[in-house]
């Protein structure tokens, strides 16, 4: 189990699936992420490759307005729903391919202030997610896209309308943040 580290649910435990089907974001990475972002009150959050839902739930705990969770795994979506239910939170959970979901959200004119993506390592999904989000209009102006990838992966300083604002290693994980520039 992992714990929520800040906000109104601080200290509450989240369920995690057994086995290696998910790789929950470490507490020190979650803490660094939210320290860099700062106040997320009233943010609309999109948690991609959600796994346990820890990032979206952490954001809600810290005052985010809403969160949408996207994962292609049945077990992961079940765990996310259980974690939300345990906290008496009702948010949208989408069991689907992340890239296809980004395209659908764009077609529905949905936008988010903070998008977090924790794709499986070694599959090129981090860069594909960055490129797809930068091509679509789902990140609000001055919104932040955060990615966790393997430490050996490098990402461009600029991607479309996005500018890299943070890039730091935490063991085997690289945390990268992009901000959508004013167009």
Q: Can you count the beta strands?
A: 10
Label the CATH architecture.
3-Layer(aba) Sandwich
Helix content: 25-40%
> In the CATH scheme, what's the topology name?
Rossmann fold
Give the C-alpha Rg.
15 Å
H/I helix tally: 5
Mean pLDDT: 91
Q: How is the largest sheet built, in terms of strand order?
A: 5-4-3-6-7-10-9-8
The main sheet comes to:
8 strands, mixed
CATH-defined superfamily: Vaccinia Virus protein VP39
β-sheet strand percentage: 25-35%
Distance between the termini: 42 Å
The outline comes out as: globular
CATH class: Alpha Beta
Number of domains: 1
Question: Element order, helices and strands?
Answer: EEHEHEHEHEHEEEE
Which oligomeric state applies? single chain
Low-confidence stretches: none
Class based on secondary structure composition and strand pairing: alpha/beta
Structural notes for this entry:
By secondary structure, the protein is α/β, with parallel strands linked by helices. The chain contains 5 helices and 10 strands. It has one domain: Rossmann fold, CATH 3.40.50. Helix 4 packs parallel to helix 5 (125-135).
Helices, strands, pairings?
Layout: E1 2-3, E2 13-14, H1 27-37, E3 44-48, H2 54-61, E4 66-71, H3 74-86, E5 92-95, H4 98-107, E6 112-117, H5 125-135, E7 139-150, E8 158-159, E9 162-170, E10 173-180
Parallel strand pairs: 3-4, 3-6, 4-5, 6-7
Antiparallel strand pairs: 1-2, 7-10, 8-9, 9-10
Helix pairs in contact: 4-5
């Amino acid at each position: 189990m992992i714990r929520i580290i800040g906000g109104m649910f601080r200290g509450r435990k989240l369920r995690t699936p057994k086995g290696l089907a998910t790789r929950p974001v470490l507490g020190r990475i979650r803490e660094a992420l939210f320290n860099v972002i700062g106040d997320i009150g009233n943010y609309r959050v999109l948690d991609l490759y959600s796994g346990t839902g820890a990032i979206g739930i952490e954001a809600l705990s810290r005052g985010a307005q809403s969160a949408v969770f996207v994962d292609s795994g049945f077990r992961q979506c079940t765990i996310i729903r259980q974690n939300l239910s345990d906290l008496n939170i009702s948010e949208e959970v989408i069991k689907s391919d992340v890239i296809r979901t980004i395209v659908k959200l764009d077609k529905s004119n949905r936008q988010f202030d903070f998008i977090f993506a924790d794709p499986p390592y070694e599959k090129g999904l981090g860069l594909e997610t960055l490129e797809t989000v930068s091509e679509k209009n789902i990140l609000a102006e001055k919104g932040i896209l955060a990615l966790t990838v393997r430490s050996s992966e490098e990402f461009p300083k600029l991607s479309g309308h996005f500018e890299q604002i943070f890039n730091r290693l935490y063991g085997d994980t690289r945390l990268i943040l992009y901000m959508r520039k004013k167009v």
